[in-house]
Amino acid sequence: MKNSFGNSITVTLFGESHGVAIGAVVDGFAPGIEVDEAFLAAQMQRRKGLSEISTKRRETDEVKILSGVFGGKTTGTPITFFIENAAQKSADYGDLHATPRPSHADYSAYCKYHGFEDYRGGGHFSGRLTAPLVAAGALALSALEKKGILIGTHILECATLRDKGFGDYAQDIAFLKQADMPVLKPEAREQMLQVIAKAREVGDSVGGILETAVIGMPAGVGEPFFDSLESALSHAMFSIPAVKGVEFGLGFEIAKHLGSKVNDPFDMQGEKVVTTTNYNGGINGGISNGMPILFRTAVKPTPSIFKEQQTVNLKTRQKATIKIKGRHDPAIVHRARVVQDSLTALVLCDMLALRYGTDYLA
Amino acid sequence: MKNSFGNSITVTLFGESHGVAIGAVVDGFAPGIEVDEAFLAAQMQRRKGLSEISTKRRETDEVKILSGVFGGKTTGTPITFFIENAAQKSADYGDLHATPRPSHADYSAYCKYHGFEDYRGGGHFSGRLTAPLVAAGALALSALEKKGILIGTHILECATLRDKGFGDYAQDIAFLKQADMPVLKPEAREQMLQVIAKAREVGDSVGGILETAVIGMPAGVGEPFFDSLESALSHAMFSIPAVKGVEFGLGFEIAKHLGSKVNDPFDMQGEKVVTTTNYNGGINGGISNGMPILFRTAVKPTPSIFKEQQTVNLKTRQKATIKIKGRHDPAIVHRARVVQDSLTALVLCDMLALRYGTDYLA
Amino acid sequence: MKNSFGNSITVTLFGESHGVAIGAVVDGFAPGIEVDEAFLAAQMQRRKGLSEISTKRRETDEVKILSGVFGGKTTGTPITFFIENAAQKSADYGDLHATPRPSHADYSAYCKYHGFEDYRGGGHFSGRLTAPLVAAGALALSALEKKGILIGTHILECATLRDKGFGDYAQDIAFLKQADMPVLKPEAREQMLQVIAKAREVGDSVGGILETAVIGMPAGVGEPFFDSLESALSHAMFSIPAVKGVEFGLGFEIAKHLGSKVNDPFDMQGEKVVTTTNYNGGINGGISNGMPILFRTAVKPTPSIFKEQQTVNLKTRQKATIKIKGRHDPAIVHRARVVQDSLTALVLCDMLALRYGTDYLA
Amino acid sequence: MKNSFGNSITVTLFGESHGVAIGAVVDGFAPGIEVDEAFLAAQMQRRKGLSEISTKRRETDEVKILSGVFGGKTTGTPITFFIENAAQKSADYGDLHATPRPSHADYSAYCKYHGFEDYRGGGHFSGRLTAPLVAAGALALSALEKKGILIGTHILECATLRDKGFGDYAQDIAFLKQADMPVLKPEAREQMLQVIAKAREVGDSVGGILETAVIGMPAGVGEPFFDSLESALSHAMFSIPAVKGVEFGLGFEIAKHLGSKVNDPFDMQGEKVVTTTNYNGGINGGISNGMPILFRTAVKPTPSIFKEQQTVNLKTRQKATIKIKGRHDPAIVHRARVVQDSLTALVLCDMLALRYGTDYLA
Prior knowledge:
Shape of chain A: globular
Largest sheet of chain A: 5 strands, antiparallel
Radius of gyration of chain A: 21 Å
Strand content of chain A: 15-25%
Oligomer: homotetramer
Order of helices and strands of chain A: EEEHEEEEHHEEHHEHEHEEEEEEEH
Number of helices of chain A: 8
Number of strands of chain A: 18
């Protein structure tokens, strides 16, 4: 499959940036889960990002639920999240089809779809497609929260700036949930806003690293050999446009150390088995071990910049230059974190439902 | 699914380290592909690693093909690779069930399987399970090579030592194919062997970073939104025991740069569209763009070390110590590279067969 | 999965009878296929059935395509067919939740969804859900027709009346395509209309047997052992509400005969291998053999009848009676044939795309 | 997928009639299920059929379990059932490749696999491939029995002879479990054995109809819209070689009746909701309703007969005749019933595990 993922709970995504609508169908959610519309709306708002550093495209992004919810609760049949495209300005994109934007999907999509793809605004490859995933994720996050499973993501790095890591997980996750800019160190917030603003001024863009923590996950969840928790989560993360790396626990850093330094010793904490360190990010052998799950993604700088760039003309087969117009974000890390939370929640709901049955989340 | 992956071509893995046998069933391969038994045997040998730095467990690892091959060629029906477990010494592992080894799957598997898991030698979680994947991968690598698609992996880092990156891809891949130690810089070979030998001496272990290149991949392959090439490849890579990170192109490094520095400009090379840099690792929007596919994995130091470690006793629910005995590798990067090549090949075969039909590889 | 089917091409269905909308997302169709809107509209009309014997619920059933089509052609990304529910009269169904209708999904859905299901008008189990499948099927039928693969379904039996079987397949299929009542024997048409009208008069319902023929199918398609053509087609057919039997070729009748009577001898017809009889319905070993594919489904009489029926009250746990109100068909065979054609086309498109690649249908 | 089926529990089948071995990998079974080796052996014996009317090919069919069982109990990791092919006499089949046997898979497989298929003895399409399914099914049947879910199949029809239908389900299923010939009416047993013996004498074959009942199934299981219980069961049944029809409850007969005659009225039986008739075979809307699940399959006469038959020579492209030699059954219904029980059990285990979690069967 391509635009669907999941086993027990599946998500199917549809739409293009400048088509009629975008949406997602979520199938397999337990019946009887309350839909928290206020939280859903708040998540959609968070995805839009801080107005001072985000795109000027002002979609209302009003989510309609077309099916699968009755009397405010899930029915157990497919839930369809639907968002109309109101503000598309297709004229801005007309000439991009012949001259693909560097580091966008334009050229590779052209090769795959033979030129029939809806190229306007990136079409099916637009970051806009993450909006219905956030809507679907809001439901998943709510359901997990009722089970005591909490998820939070912060910007660990933005360009060359660095936030501090997680301290008290529960407290930090609660803080991030309501933060307009997901940064744990107060001074990092200002610095990052400045570096983003500066990139915008010069028509450039910056990337960053997002770090996600999950607490309250029961031990024993994951489906190795091939559906390890790492495999399932990275699969979802790499579908977020712009993500070029995923690492768990110490990640790439772990490769530099001796086994004796980075093995996580076991200990008892009352009746609970814990590890005294968590270099493996809460996962051993692809299965949760009850410690916080910790992972990071590398988000490349948004490829839509306003500087003149070199490209080719696919019709004339000649070198060409391109200058992108329209409305584009100088950074997306602060917006992508909501997508990361959402996909994490959907993957974990699927894994939990597969393990404990489809009624588990009810 | 769990022990199967793939859409058009599927791989199903079975077995435990100290059970009767391990194996893999590969379904969906085109009929008429010649089975290169010499190459298969050579790959199995490469997976064993250099004798001076590898485990003393000397399995013959003789691969029998039980089905799906007739007259030396694939039939189109499931191919079963089968390896008997000859050399198991189960007595070495008997006491591990109560006292899980730090950073192994012992404890998380215990939580998932309620103690019914075959714990001997890591059971289903043993690195030994990668042997049938290498056998299956040999077939995939051969089939891809006939299509001009070549794959090679080297040890970019081992502990704190560093190899040089890929230069001339075709030449480097050819070199790696026959190298006993997959390192591109001659002096790095000796240094790495020394650091591994030293870790062994002190009963410790080291990790590393593996870098894989794929050349000859046609543009237009990948199944976004959710089965992006990155998603499919990382999914497979994170099933390799010990992998804790996967990154494409510049990877985590890309997050530090401005968009204008790391966008890959397009250019014409004769009739072919190319990019002048390849910071995206040959993939845009989850689809191959015709440039070399480049990615790296972080391999943690093998958790089996011979130093005394802290753990708990799951029966008494008390703190305990453990000293692992038996035969264990002080490093697996030089062996894991064959697994990485193999899984890469299997994923790409699946993607190509899905795109171009099941007869494509014939 | 549940509300999705298919491997290379997948169909995801959503919606409830009295919800906001119903629809289907079709993923994996080749780019560049022309969307024949007139044919799509005609198929939707055919699904409504002859007005004199069909439900008085007059939905406009206007299909909007929300995504995946650009400039009148498929883009290769998910195609969403969307139908708003305009005419629902929920008041008619309010009391059914406590007193399940005999032979409907009411009670079994209640057990599965714990009472949270949208019970109005059958909810997700309504025959209305077949409307988006017909829309999706129209695209599949058009694409297959361009490949010379033609599909037609007639009412072989209605109650105790019988149509004649297929004669000249191409001619019969062409006739059925434009027939308002899909019957091959002229006099059977009138008789069947009468038996249906009579059932309506007395508040009862009739069932029937639908027979489908596919011609032009290449030999060698099907994915046994488990995805035989029969398995794939029956899987889809049994998802049509009211279907209780599926048989291929001679079907159940074949069990009464000697092997020597019902084996299909091979013969040459010019350069083509054919069979002189077709008791196996064009499928041997789960794979097409190039002869017409022939199968029949048993469609039970619609359970919605207007006579008083015995049921139970799920709240009081007592025996109860029910008298169904509202708008219901005395027969659905003449409407279901369009659904049968549509699902057949979708299954074959999937099988062909898996075999010959995703561009095959372009 | 092709040689795998299932969602939460998957079965992967491999092997050819005259290859090294055949087998099945079952993944997803709960840990801690006892393996009843005596029952497994008994089922394998039942599959061989009564010696007086079955093939003279006397395979020992000894099942080895290669993985997934430890200390007599399932571990939760893949279970591999393995059967060596000992008695193959390939010389008997050598000339069949050019002259396909009527109504066998020979020709359609040739089209699919381009002549690379292992044609000896039917290769992957041999009825022999059902042996590992029976081994896997034995485990499933045992696990279901512990949950109070019982399955039994009898020969409802053999050629033109007819057994009586199920009476007291529990009693009949217990009787069938130990019957050497699965017939409920004593006199039907002798008659059927005679009709089969007579077919053998004249080198011909007979078919039949198998009827399966499942009792103890909880209400609320099934995954419509597309994975209805009927869809899932028929999908599996149509993978049994020779099955050409599947019907539930009244099946094709239901199409002849008025709704008022075949709707199943609800009633209370103590605290339990029941239906007073069971024309729908225990399934409404694709979901179990708590009544016995009842279905029938049409098994065609075995195509291997000893009379001269017309075929074509695929090399010369001319008409030809063929006279099949070797060891073949004049009937397989009495053997296929074990396969039908086994696949039914595997499908239900999968559905139950998906619904109630992977530990449900433990």
